[in-house]
Structures are given as structure tokens and as C-alpha cells.
User: Which sequence fits this backbone?
């Protein structure tokens, strides 16, 4: 292409979207868009997910970047032949663009605020519906308890009344037998014949009434309510999990942080315990005592979500850790030391690393665990993705970048040889 032909093209064809200048060592990514190599490298370094800054297409794995020599040659020719602008004009154009960028941002903020208001309103309506239903259920249950108690009391009153009547008749019989001589049948009155014709006397040891008949009545009713609340919580948890899936992040393991016992797959999505020390380079970021590994990605703002397939493993630990955690020597995995984790122990118990540890009772053994981080709110939540059940949430205050944290657990004679597998992919919001 001749220099004159190049000059006929609009300048925007030779400008990098990131630096807004003529391409320098341009690279073209799979979606077809091009950027300066250094601009794109810096852009992706600052973001955990690799996506096109123009069309927002996400790449599960970082594409190999090769300089587009044809575009580089054309851009260099354009740089040398483009009409020179007056400095004042360039300044005006830059300012106008800055003004436009800020106006666009204002519109986006306003739109986001409207969406946020809708979200607030939806949550208020949902909570009103849920709590109104629970209050109604509690009121109905309380009325049912009171009615049942009243009915039981009336039945007991009738029973006691019958017993008292029978005992009084027996008293009359006993009095007649002890104070009167034997009477001829013709001399007996009708009442006297009724007394003397009573069946065998009652066993007084069996004639009694329970003085505290309502033991456990309220507790059982409340247990029924708690079961309904549990069902409602599970329903909300499933809906919650659906909503946070849009924050799914592309997570890749960092082999540089993996303990020598661990093997990280080439695609950086799996980690397993090998049972033997591997020859790996010494690295200040590598764990040297406990078989842990961190993700390459870290977060210091916003929300993110990923899923890990644990399958039938008998021991594992998942969660997040501060970037500044101690990775050498002996340390305690707890929030105070920068770890927020959920573990399955070899005995089948699920525990959270609170101080002291807390045991978590799960109805279903999860084969895949979802981890959700809300950095501004300081929350780390765990979910069973198959059932949608919420497992546990840590609430803390983050003051450092945090990394996803993984430990596949010990081998246990080969029973725990399967790897932990990250099974998430980025979804654009």
C-alpha cells in the first residue's frame, strides 16, 4: 500500500484503543482487534480475567501475543506521513475526548443507579413476602398449639369427672358393706342395688392424672416451623447462587506457589498430591511446609465467584488467603493469619477454620463447591452447587489483595489421589 493510499484512510484505523496513539508493535488477538503490545500486556496484568478491551470477549487462557508485522509496517508508514497537527489543536481534541468520556461515565453511573434501585426494591419485596409468610405460619402454628392444649385439657377434665364418679360409687358401696347388716333383696332400694352391683373395685395405684401433660408441645411446634424456615432458606440460597454466577471469574493455579508435593496441570486448572517431593525452583512465594497452592489471580475490589470439583475426595481445603500470608515454616490456617477456608477432614467432618474451628453439618455431600467473594462487604461464602445449599459465610475486613486458595489433602493410601479441578469460566456482567 502506497503512502498516499495510507493517508486516505481515517486515523482511527491506526490508533490503539488503550493509549489512543498510533500502534507501536501491534498485536492482534483472536477476536480480531489490535492493540499495542505493551498497552495490552499492562491492561491484562491489572485484571484477573483476560478479555478484549474493545468487544469484551473473554479468553479462558491468555492468547499467545505475536506482533502483527503488516499492521506494524502500515502504522509506522502512517506515523511518518500523517499530517502534522498544531499542538493547540491536539490539546483541544484530547480535552474534548476527556469531556466525552466523563459524560459517558455519568450516563453509565445513572443507569447503574437505576438498576441498583430496582434491585433494592426487588429485595425489599422478596423479604416482605418471605417474612410475612413466616409470621403467618407462626401465628397459625401458635393457634394450633393452643387449640390442641385446650382440647387435651377438656378430654382430661371429662376423664377425671368419670373417674371421680366411679370412685364415689365405690365409696358408697364400701360404706354400705361396713355399716349395714346384710339385707334381703326385697329390702334393698334401687340406689342400693346399683351400689352393690358395681364391678370389681379399681386398682387405686392406676387411678392418676398427669400434672404436666404439655412437655415438649411448644418445642415440637417450633421444630416444625424451623423445618419450614430451613426449606425457605434453601430456596433463597438456590436463587442467590443463580444471581452470583454472573460474577464467575477465570481462575488459574500458580505453579510458583505450589508446595513440592503438588502437581499442577499444564492448563492450570487441576492440582493433586503426588506423594513425593518434586524438583522445583526455589521461590519466595512457594509453600514449603504444607501442601497448599494459590491461584495466579488476586482481588482487591468487587465480587468474584468460582467452582471447584471435589468429587469423592476424602480430604481437601478451599477458600481464599491474603497475598501477604506466611508461606514458609509452620503457621496456623485461620482468619487472623489471613486464611478463610472450608475443609473436609479425613473423618468425614466439614469444618471452617474459625478460632476454634467450627463444624458444619451438611445434608448432602457436595461434589462441587462454589466460592463467592464480596470484597467490599468482607464476605467469603461457600455453596454446594448441586443442591444450591449455602454452607458457610465468613465476615471480615479485607485490607490486602486476596488469592483463591487450594489444598487437595494427603493421599491416604491412594483414596485421595484425585485432583481438585477448577471448573469455572468467566461470564461477562
Assistant:
Amino acid at each position: 500500500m502506497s503512502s498516499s493510499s495510507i493517508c486516505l484512510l481515517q486515523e482511527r484505523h491506526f490508533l490503539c484503543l488503550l493509549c489512543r496513539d498510533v500502534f507501536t508493535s501491534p498485536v492482534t488477538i483472536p477476536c480480531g482487534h489490535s492493540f499495542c503490545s505493551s498497552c495490552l500486556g499492562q491492561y491484562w496484568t491489572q485484571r484477573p480475567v483476560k478479555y478484549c478491551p474493545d468487544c469484551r470477549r473473554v479468553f479462558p487462557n491468555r492468547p499467545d501475543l505475536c506482533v502483527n508485522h503488516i499492521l506494524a509496517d502500515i502504522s509506522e508508514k502512517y506515523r511518518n506521513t500523517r499530517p502534522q497537527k498544531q499542538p493547540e489543536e491536539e490539546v483541544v481534541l484530547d480535552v474534548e475526548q476527556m469531556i466525552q468520556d466523563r459524560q459517558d461515565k455519568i450516563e453509565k453511573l445513572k443507569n447503574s443507579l437505576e438498576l441498583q434501585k430496582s434491585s433494592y426494591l426487588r429485595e425489599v419485596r422478596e423479604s416482605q413476602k418471605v417474612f410475612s409468610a413466616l409470621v403467618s405460619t407462626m401465628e397459625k402454628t401458635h393457634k394450633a398449639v393452643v387449640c390442641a392444649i385446650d382440647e387435651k385439657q377438656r378430654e382430661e377434665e371429662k376423664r377425671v369427672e368419670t373417674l371421680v364418679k366411679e370412685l364415689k360409687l365405690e365409696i358408697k358401696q364400701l360404706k354400705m358393706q361396713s355399716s349395714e347388716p346384710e339385707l334381703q333383696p326385697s329390702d334393698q332400694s334401687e340406689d342400693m342395688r346399683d351400689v352393690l352391683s358395681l364391678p370389681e373395685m379399681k386398682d387405686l395405684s392406676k387411678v392418676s392424672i398427669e400434672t404436666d401433660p404439655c412437655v415438649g408441645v411448644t418445642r415440637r411446634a417450633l421444630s416444625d416451623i424451623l423445618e419450614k424456615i430451613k426449606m425457605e432458606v434453601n430456596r433463597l440460597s438456590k436463587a442467590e447462587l443463580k444471581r452470583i454466577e454472573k460474577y464467575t471469574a477465570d481462575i488459574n493455579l500458580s505453579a510458583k506457589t505450589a508446595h513440592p508435593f503438588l502437581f499442577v496441570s499444564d492448563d492450570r486448572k487441576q492440582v493433586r498430591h503426588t506423594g513425593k517431593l518434586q524438583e522445583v525452583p526455589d521461590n519466595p512465594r512457594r509453600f514449603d511446609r504444607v501442601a497448599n497452592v494459590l491461584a495466579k489471580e488476586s482481588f482487591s475490589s468487587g465480587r468474584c465467584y468460582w467452582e471447584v470439583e471435589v468429587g469423592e475426595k476424602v480430604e481437601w481445603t478451599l477458600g481464599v488467603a491474603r497475598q501477604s500470608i506466611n508461606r514458609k515454616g509452620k503457621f496456623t490456617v485461620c482468619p487472623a493469619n489471613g486464611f478463610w477456608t472450608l475443609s473436609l477432614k479425613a473423618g468425614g467432618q466439614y469444618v471452617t477454620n474459625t478460632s476454634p474451628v467450627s463444624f458444619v453439618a451438611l445434608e448432602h455431600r457436595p461434589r462441587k463447591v462454589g466460592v463467592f467473594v464480596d470484597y467490599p462487604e468482607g464476605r467469603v461464602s461457600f455453596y454446594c452447587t448441586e443442591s444450591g445449599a449455602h454452607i458457610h459465610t465468613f465476615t471480615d475486613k479485607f485490607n490486602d489483595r486476596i488469592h483463591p486458595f487450594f489444598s487437595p489433602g494427603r493421599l491416604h493410601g491412594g483414596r485421595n489421589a484425585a485432583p481438585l479441578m477448577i471448573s469455572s469460566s468467566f461470564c461477562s456482567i
Remarks:
- The chain has six helices and 15 strands.
- Residues 86 and 129 are 65 Å apart (CA to CA).
- Residues 425-429 have pLDDT under 50 and may be disordered.
